[in-house]
Amino acid sequence: MTATRVLVLNSGSSSVKYQLLDMRDGSRLAVGLVERIGEETSRLVHTPLAGEGSAKRERTGPIADHEAALKAVADELDADGLGLDSPELAAIGHRVVHGGLRFTEPTVVDDEVLAEIERLVPVAPLHNPANITGIRTAQALRPDLPQVAVFDTAFHTTMPESAARYAIDTEVADAHRIRRYGFHGTSHAYVSRETARLLGKAPEDVNVIVLHLGNGASASAVRGGKCVDTSMGLTPLEGLVMGTRSGDVDPAVTFHLQRVAGMSTDEIDVLLNKKSGLVGLCGDNDMREIRRRIEEGDERARLAFDIYIHRLKKYIGAYYAVLGRVDAIAFTAGVGENAAPVRQAAVAGLEELGLALDAALNEERSDEARIVSTPYARVAVAVVPTDEELEIARQTIALVAPNSLD
Ligand SMILES: Nc1ncnc2c1ncn2[C@@H]1O[C@H](COP(=O)(O)OP(=O)(O)O)[C@@H](O)[C@H]1O
Ligand SMILES: CC(=O)OP(=O)(O)O
Ligand SMILES: [Mg+2]
């Protein structure tokens, strides 16, 4: 029997999303999520999709760390006869957030690769440690299986130096590998390709601005299938206003906080990464809650929303200029896919740029990729659900068993 299944692990700072896929047709056999890892109220939601009468299972209770989370996931899969010991499993694919400049392709993990991912922890402190634990735990469970790392940074390695370099002393920058790497690349790659498909065109023929708006958020300018600019930088802190991250600030804010407010580097790191963005502005990082508060007339929530939109609009304008010609703007991830008011506000007033939403289409709820602009708009506005797990599984199987699907 040829092994055609791939387990994909998308480990975030306090969560693990996972999918077990059969790559003969890309169908999902099980999907799930462990959230609030490290808290008393951790929650595992597991949905087997393979058998008859399969139903979502949920359990709550403390799950101490990512290792415990993965073991709990392995137990759930076992209970469905989809355990990690299955001979049908070809590989485990891992989302790894920071791959530096070295990893431009999916990579089979060995000790040396793992050491390099570890070396990048200082530039992805919220993400790479969780990714490393995910890989180590999966290795311990199935030492014989290839573990494949798929990097968030890989898609952005096509950025020209003019976009990737900061205007700081070149020697200092080179000595410390300080440059803009960009993140969410698997999503930007997948969504830009799906957007081309939605337009009935080849990826080489379209220019797309992708807005990945989840808890972390980033924008990218994609010309003919290749990334030419993106809003995240050395770390996933730069760019858009996010759930808990500030996005762009004057770097002098950090000197000021050190000198005047007496904050330590670590305190400023926590402030900008975990206590800023929407949560810092209004106390909530969930866009649903913010919209609910706005409906009730809450001024702080309104201002937080306006700041979020203002930044988003600036990036749309910037990437329009970078690309020169834009065929589509694609909204994706939790906020981009679900929050019609965000899409509406982000493109409002941009009719001169060829952008015009169809209000009814924009409000419609759907899980499908779809166009929500008016037919006469020069630039299509699309809502394209991202699928980082499917994309990771595709890249994983292509690497470990390129001929298994013929
Ligand atoms: N129906 C909705 N309306 C508005 N925002 C939503 C909705 N559903 C999810 N979200 C937003 O999506 C965010 C999570 O997006 P997601 O892409 O899953 O993020 P991440 O992968 O970074 O965890 C939530 O914080 C919430 O703000
Ligand atoms: C890189 C990044 O910001 O990822 P996430 O949105 O999953 O936090
Ligand atoms: Mg995400």
Automatic annotation (TrEMBL):
Subcellular location: Cytoplasm
Primary subcellular site in the record, as a coarse category: cytoplasm
Chemical reaction(s) catalysed: acetate + ATP = acetyl phosphate + ADP
Obligatory cofactor(s): Mg(2+); Mn(2+)
UniProt keyword terms in alphabetical order: ATP-binding, Cytoplasm, Kinase, Magnesium, Metal-binding, Nucleotide-binding, Transferase
Entry keyword Protease: no
Position of the signal peptide: none
The family this protein is said to belong to: Belongs to the acetokinase family.
Oligomer and partners: Homodimer.
Protein name (Swiss-Prot/TrEMBL): Acetate kinase
Name of the encoding gene: ackA
